[in-house]
Amino acid sequence: MGERRSLVLDTSAFIGGFDPSSVSEETYSVPEVEKELLESFIPKLRFTTSVESGKLKVIEPQQQYINLVKKASEEVGDANLLSSADISILALAAQLKDKGHNPIIITEDYSIQNVAERLKLKFASLTNLGIRYQLFWKQYCPACGKEYQTDREITICENCGTELKRKPVKRKPIKRD
């Protein structure tokens, strides 16, 4: 039996106009995406209609995959940029991959794409080809220069009170299939 191709849809996929009923692949998402769509009438309607028709399967990923994603996001420095929906999307893709699916995450979010690359998960963007490099980030204070680990949940410099910025410290070319 060949691998089943499945699409895992994040919030940006629905806001960007992706319609699960327009593709033949199985489509998946997570409960948090529906919560993030509360303010967007048409994307929310598209989400709900897809669920009701049975085209979109909404699954809460298992905790072990959430933990895996959190670890990977800390390793590349994107931990503070991922919402709980983003983490769940990545976790669900990893879970489906382990179950023999060939999942592709449909997302416009560079942090999701960056962590997906770290986890060797496929991704595609609606509007562009996505990123060409995996980035590793560091946080720093633009005023006094103090550097911080990106896995710390801190946004203000402990030395001088300036808002922290982040910059890539290293980039690695991504090998496309």
Q: What radius of gyration results from the CA coordinates?
A: 17 Å
Query: Average pLDDT value?
Result: 86
Number of strands: 8
Number of domains: 2
Low-confidence stretches: none
Q: Strand order of the main beta sheet, please?
A: 3-2-1-4-5
Largest sheet: 5 strands, parallel
- Termini separation: 21 Å
CATH topology of the largest domain: Rossmann fold
Cα shape: globular
| Helix count, DSSP H or I runs of 4 or more residues | 6
What structural class is derived from the secondary structure elements?
Answer: alpha/beta
The proportion of residues forming helix, as a percent range, comes to 25-40%
**Can you write the helix and strand succession as a string?**
EHEHHEHHEHEEEE
Amount of beta strand: 15-25%
Q: Any idea what the CATH architecture of the largest domain is? A: 3-Layer(aba) Sandwich
CATH class of the largest domain: Alpha Beta
Write structural notes for this entry:
The chain contains six helices and eight strands, in the order βαβααβααβαββββ. It is of the alpha/beta class and 177 residues long. Helix 4 packs across helix 5 and helix 4 crosses helix 6. The two termini are 21 Å apart. The model has no long low-confidence stretch (mean pLDDT 86).
